[in-house]
TrEMBL record:
The protein's name: DNA integrity scanning protein DisA nucleotide-binding domain protein
Keyword Transferase found: yes
InterPro entries listed in its UniProt record: DisA, DNA_integrity_DisA_N_sf, DNA_integrity_scan_DisA_N
Domain of life: Bacteria
Pfam families: DAC
Keyword DNA repair: no
Single GO term (MF): diadenylate cyclase activity
Ranges where the DAC domain occurs: 1-55
Xref: PANTHER family: DIADENYLATE CYCLASE (PTHR34185:SF1)
Keyword annotations of the record: ATP-binding, Nucleotide-binding, Nucleotidyltransferase, Transferase
Annotated catalysed reactions: 2 ATP = 3',3'-c-di-AMP + 2 diphosphate
Length: 82
């Protein structure tokens, strides 16, 4: 897995978080991370990591990101058809 080389993330983040962030840096994926030690849930997307999210935060983030993605795909398809 591609480990992120970002220096400004929490020192407590380990390989799991660095790999998730690395994936988000080189792909357009949304990566959910569950801390093995604390059970805290984080989300990595577009080279950013949002940590210690509750279920409501996760739903909001996913809804927003997936809606934005769907809108951009629809726009690209529309441009392709013209």
């Amino acid at each position: 897995l591609p480990l992120s080389m970002q220096q400004d993330i929490k020192k407590t983040f380990g390989t799991r978080h660095r790999a998730a962030l690395g994936l988000s840096e080189i792909t357009d994926s949304i990566v959910l991370i569950v801390s093995e030690e604390t059970g805290a849930i984080s989300l990595a997307y577009d080279s950013k990591i949002y940590y210690d999210l509750n279920s409501s935060d996760i739903k909001t983030q996913l809804s927003m990101l997936l809606t934005d993605y769907q809108d951009s795909v629809s726009q690209e398809a529309s441009e392709y058809e013209n």
